[in-house]
Structures are given as structure tokens and as C-alpha cells.
Amino acid sequence: EPEVTQTPSHQVTQMGQEVILRCVPISNHLYFYWYRQILGQKVEFLVSFYNNEISEKSEIFDDQFSVERPDGSNFTLKIRSTKLEDSAMYFCASSAPWTRNTEAFFGQGTRLTVV
Amino acid sequence: GIQVEQSPPDLILQEGANSTLRCNFSDSVNNLQWFHQNPWGQLINLFYIPSGTKQNGRLSATTVATERYSLLYISSSQTTDSGVYFCAAGGRNTDKLIFGTGTRLQVFP
After folding, report:
1. With an 8 Å Cβ cutoff, are B96 and A48 in contact?
2. What would the mean pLDDT of A20-43 be, rounded to a whole number?
3. What are the residue ranges spanned by the domains of chain A?
4. Is any Cβ of chain B less than 8 angstroms from the Cβ of A55?
5. Which tens digit of pLDDT belongs to each residue from B65-80?
6. Residues 6+ positions from B93 with CB-CB distance below 8 Å
7. Which of A35, A108, A115, B58 is deepest in the core (most CB within 10 A)?
8. Which of B36, B17, B39, B7 lies closest to B108 in space, CA to CA?
């Protein structure tokens, strides 16, 4: 069964460092998303990406964040200068292309720890 | 934007019991999904159910879109059902899912 895969599963980084979280969405999907979940809290939307551009973003997704689809299979989230409060589980998701807001499938998550 | 509320926040069951989890949403939705977050933090898709009723084994879900709520039924619960159950709703003209705060289920043998 097709699935969304994320790497790494866990990353520890020092405050101020740049991190890149990687995702391989389901192959025929065209909508891609990043969400995050701070420990013990609910899952929050960060950004959606369609047709090689950001289609929607939340207030959390400030200038420290960027997304990219560098090739036909990968989708990345970059945090330029990490802060302690960026520590969270980051989820990538993708959904099918035929209409907006179809079922989203989530990856297993990357747990980011900023020290 | 859409507000999503889940109840109860915590649920403790003995193995074999049945349970009903509720999700209320504040506006019309084009997408309503139920997820199970396992102890490793993975979000497992349970149902995509913007309206109607679906069943998958011991789990079933019903969404009454006109009354803005969805229910997740777990029958004959097992210890492996433990974890947090989230519902998430997506409105019209938006890509994002808004998640509820979840129901934490603990099933004891």
C-alpha cells in the first residue's frame, strides 16, 4: 500500500542551526502539507503546497520556515535558525489531485529536538 | 475558521467494552477524518468520512454533516486500541485540516 515516508525519524539539533526535514509523498498525489505537534498538544497546520507553490500557510509558518519540492519525489521543510520552541513532531502529508480537501495521508513523523 | 471539539478528553476502559467518541465542528466541512495516534506518535488513518457511515472491523464512524458532528465507535476494545484519537475537519476553499484536542483512550486487560 502506498505510504508517505519521512526522514529522519528523529533529529537533534542545536539552537540556531538549520534543519531540513524530508518527505516522499504518495506518488500520484499533488497536494502536500506539513503539520506539527508540540508534545502533549494537538496537531497544527503549517503549510500546504500545490503546483510548485505555497497554496496556504498558517501564522506559525513565518520567515524561518520554507518548503521546497526539489525533484519529482521529495518535499522538504527547512527551518533556517531553530529555536527551542521549534521542538515538536513534524508530520508530512499528501492528498490526491482531483479535488481539494480529499483524504490526507500522513507520514510517520520526524521528532525534532532543539537543544 | 472551523473549530473542532472532541469529547471526552480521557476514556478508561476494560478490554471488551464498547465506546463512543464524539467530534463537534463549527461549520460546514468538505473533509472529516479520524486518526489514531499510537504510542510511537504515528498518525494512523481510520476513516475519511465527511458524511454518512463507514465500518472497518471493530471500528465504525458516522458523520451527520447537517448537525455538525461525527462519532467514532469502538466495539470489543483491545489493549492495542490504546492511544489518542483525533478528528480533523477541513472546510470549503481551504487545504488545511483543523485537528481537535483528541480523546486519550486507555484499555486495560
Report:
1. yes
2. 94
3. 5-9+16-106
4. yes
5. 999 999 999 999 999 9
6. A100
7. A35
8. B17
